[in-house]
Q: What sequence folds into this?
């Protein structure tokens, strides 16, 4: 009996920054973590009609993601039902997760033997960051290798799975750790077209700054998460975020993308989060806390305070997702 339905659920991701921008021809080594919500949920099934059909119940425009997948597959006779989507252009990895979810579900439905990384190449994922692909595959806390740039010093679409950023470290996030997520409503982060002018030609950092980033990730963050030491991990994360923000300040105007993000970052630190940062281009802000109850308490206090100052924002308290995309197939 042929496969009739494929259901896929993939987590959002927090992008925790880059530890390398350009060293010896390798660009954009980065790190991040999968979170349980928000998420993208897609159902793909064969339609009795011969035409291709999309039913988008999420209320979020993903026409660009659908179009990209349609260039890769023959979608005749297939219905894509979009049940939920990670919010777009706020720094939570929506485009990569949504494209991979739809493409992987279609590939499974059609019996095509494509790996996630095969699809990433076809969809031009992993151009600047390896975190989205890695959390789709495995979840947890991940560190990617970055990738080699072209002879002209320019970042281009990956040409093969071996050209993608490689996963060089992955571990589950301790169960007791929670993330406070704030998404101010005043500004969206850069979309994929806008960021090309920023990311296409990476530049090197001074050697002492580059060494500091390496040290933060490989001497402090990786060992501390393995032993469950949230204090060391959080301090290193916060420091790395400030260095990375300084690199991007010439593009976003400051260390953070906007005043609202800076306000929330400082407030989270004042209320005692262990680590803090801006995810990708923002405006998503995250704070790391030990204990779900404590995280909720801090989140409510910060929300009330920023609201009283006229800053409109959504917030949530979430756990890390220590698994990647969940796939269910039915015949």
A:
């Amino acid at each position: 009996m042929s496969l009739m339905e494929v259901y896929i659920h993939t987590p959002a991701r927090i992008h925790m920054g880059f530890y390398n921008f350009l060293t010896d021809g390798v660009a954009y080594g980065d790190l991040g973590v999968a979170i349980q919500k928000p998420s993208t949920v897609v159902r793909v099934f064969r339609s009795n009609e011969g035409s291709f059909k999309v039913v988008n119940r999420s209320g979020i425009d993903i026409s660009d993601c659908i179009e990209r997948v349609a260039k890769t597959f023959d979608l005749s006779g297939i219905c894509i039902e979009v049940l939920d989507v990670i919010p777009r252009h706020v720094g939570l990895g929506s485009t990569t997760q949504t494209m991979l979810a739809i493409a992987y579900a279609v590939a499974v439905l059609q019996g095509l033997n494509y790996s996630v990384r095969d699809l990433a190449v076809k969809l031009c994922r992993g151009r600047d960051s390896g975190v989205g692909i890695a959390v789709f595959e495995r979840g947890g806390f991940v560190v990617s290798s970055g990738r080699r740039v072209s002879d002209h010093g320019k970042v281009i679409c990956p040409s093969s799975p071996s050209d993608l950023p490689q996963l060089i470290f992955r571990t589950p996030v301790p169960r007791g750790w929670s993330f406070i997520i704030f998404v101010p409503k005043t500004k969206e982060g850069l979309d994929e077209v806008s960021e090309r002018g920023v990311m296409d030609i990476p530049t090197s950092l001074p050697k002492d700054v580059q060494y500091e980033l390496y040290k933060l990730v490989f001497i402090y963050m990786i060992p501390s998460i393995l032993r469950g030491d949230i204090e060391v991990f959080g301090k290193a994360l916060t420091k790395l975020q400030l260095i990375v923000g300084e690199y991007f300040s010439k593009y976003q105007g400051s260390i953070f993308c906007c005043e609202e993000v800076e306000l929330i970052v400082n407030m989270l630190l004042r209320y005692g989060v262990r680590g803090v940062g801006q995810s990708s281009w923002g405006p998503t802000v995250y704070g790391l806390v030990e204990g779900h109850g404590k995280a909720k308490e801090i989140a409510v206090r910060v929300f009330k305070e920023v609201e009283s100052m006229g800053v409109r924002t959504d917030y949530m308290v979430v756990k890390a997702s220590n698994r990647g995309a969940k796939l269910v197939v039915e015949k």
